[in-house]
Amino acid sequence: MKTEAAPPPVKVLIAEDQDDLRENLAEYLRLEGYEVASTANGRDALARALEMQPEVIVSDLAMPEMDGRKLFCALRENRSTADIPVIFLSAWADRQNVREGMQLGAADYITKPFRVEEVTAAIETQAKAVRQRQSHIAADCAEARLGLVRKLPHELLTPLNGILGPAEMLKMADCPLSKDEVSELGHAIFLSARRLQRVMENLLLHIDSLEKRRPLPSPHSSVGADALRRAIDEAVSAICEVTGSSPKRIRIMGDMPAAAIRGEDLKKVVLELLENALKFSPEDSCVDLHVGQIGTELRIAVRDFGRGMTSTQIAEVSAFSQFERERFEQQGLGLGLTICRNIASSYGGTLDIQSIEGGPTTVRCSFPVTGS
Fold first, then answer.
1. Structural domain boundaries of the chain?
2. Which CATH class for the 219-372 domain?
3. CA geometry: angle at 309 spanning 359 and 136, to 5°?
4. What's the 3-state SS for 42-102?
5. Is residue 269 within 8 Å of 351, Cβ to Cβ?
6. Dist CA 246 CA 252 (whole Å)
7. Measuring CA to CA, which residue among 55, 127, 50, 116 is closest to residue 89?
8. Dihedrals φ, ψ of 91, to 5°?
């Protein structure tokens, strides 16, 4: 009978400048079956974390060269280490240091002196959570692959047919065409090629997000209001060109503040939200695009007056999900809202959908106005 293979040992990185404490803890964990690496300062710990990709990091707060807080922030700014749980160790038992450590986002906080069993229990708790999360991600990837296999051929063939048809007419020597007819066929080829390009761009964005290959935005950058407004104008122009919609259908309201978001990311969010809104709205209706600052957040809200969504559909929004596709012919892979949510989340923002069946539908994305 085939037996399941034992799971690999949990990888732990220890950053502690007290030699005896570090060595004793590392040896104990190895005897308990963990794969352990250890360093004496935060700078070396960061390099080892990038190389080793541990499942849990145990770090002292007071260390030379780079202390525990700086190490934690550096880990969070790198996509490959951003989600690794960090357990802080410190001889500082006062409430202020405990509070500061937890406010950074530490997974746990253990004061010195401690029993090694305390550290082991904390590591085991965090490692279990990490592996459960990895299992869920693997399941999501498998579901995404299945969705891709089902939908991608159709989404590629449709624009390809839109290219091949006009191209075949253009190559026919015995089919005289006027200048206007040639221009019209060329425009049809261009629109189909742009649609094909966007399908592939969105697919690659989604894959990068699943594999965490998209670089994290800088938490300290802030982009001026004029640059962000240009990004919005570019998104409006691009979506009108691709969909053939009149710019008059898009009503832009509000004042754009400076915000801690890259122009290219804002443009992508606005483009995807507008395409969704235009796709599911009557052709003679308008779409409202609201921008503005609410408290410490930049809010982007797009409202359409289409058929709306039920609460169940809102809860089930995910990659490759399209509702009632059999009843309503609609194009796309269903990645738009997922991409917007991933971009907002990477900045510490959110995506929220409010809708009722029969409309209207409002999708809001929030981003920090200033970097933290």
1. 11-135, 219-372
2. alpha beta
3. 155
4. HHHHHHHHHHHCCCEEEEECCCCCCCHHHHHHHHHCCCCCCCCCEEEEECCCCHHHHHHHH
5. no
6. 13
7. 116
8. -80, -10
Q: In b/e form, how buried is each residue of 57-89, taking b as 16+ CB within 10 angstroms?
A: bbbbbbbeebbbbebbebbbeeeebeebbbbbb
Q: Could you write out the three-class secondary structure of 99-153?
A: HHHHHHCCCEEEECCCCHHHHHHHHHHHHHHHHHHHHHHHHHHHHHHHHHHHHHH
Among 250, 221, 216, which Cα is nearest to 236's?
Answer: 250
- Name 250's bridge partners: 287
Cα–Cα distance measured from residue 98 to residue 109, given in angstroms and rounded to the nearest whole number: 7
Q: Quick: pLDDT tens for 327-371.
A: 444 454 567 888 898 888 888 889 999 988 887 999 999 988 875
Q: Which residues contact 329 (CB under 8 A, 6 or more apart)?
A: none
**What pLDDT, in 10s, does the model give residues 158-214?**
888 888 888 888 877 667 788 888 888 888 888 888 888 877 887 777 777 766 655
HSE of 293, CA atoms in CB hemisphere, 13 A:
13
Nearest Cα to Cα of residue 289 among 245, 224, 319: 245
- List C-alpha distances in Å: 205 to 214, 265, 308: 8, 11, 26
CA dihedral 269, 272, 273, 278 (to 10 degrees): 150
Region 298-309 average pLDDT? 88
Cis amide prior to 360 (ω within 30 degrees): yes
Q: Calculate the dihedral angle through the C-alpha atoms of 184, 189, 194, 197, rounding to the nearest 10 degrees.
A: 180
How high does pLDDT run on average in the chain? 82
Q: Residue 289 in 3-state DSSP? A: strand
Contact 344, 359 (CB under 8 A): no
Fold classification of 11-135 is: Rossmann fold (3.40.50)
**What's the pTM?**
0.55
Q: Are strands 11-15 and 108-111 parallel, antiparallel or unpaired?
A: unpaired
